[in-house]
Amino acid sequence: MTHHCKELLFEHLCLFR
């Protein structure tokens, strides 16, 4: 899992970025 965001709220948004 590669997350470019530290915010769990925007985790789904970061997956598309």
Describe this structure in words.
It is a single chain. 29% of the residues lie in helices and 0% in strands. The longest helix has 5 residues, at 11-15. It contains 1 helix and no strands. The chain has one helix spanning 11-15. The radius of gyration is 6 Å and the shape is flat. The model has no long low-confidence stretch (mean pLDDT 63). The protein is mainly α and 17 residues long.
Supply the key terms.
17 residues; mainly alpha; 1 helix
**Uncertain spans, ≥5 residues at pLDDT below 50?**
none
What is the helix tally?
A: 1
Strand content range: under 5%
Biggest sheet layout: none
What is the averaged pLDDT score? Answer: 63
Rg over alpha carbons: 6 Å
Compute the number of strand runs. Answer: 0
**Head-to-tail CA distance between termini:** 13 Å
Helix/strand/pairing category: mainly alpha
Instruction: Tell me the quaternary state.
Output: single chain
User: What is the overall silhouette?
Assistant: flat
Helix content: 25-40%
Give the SSE order as H and E letters.
H
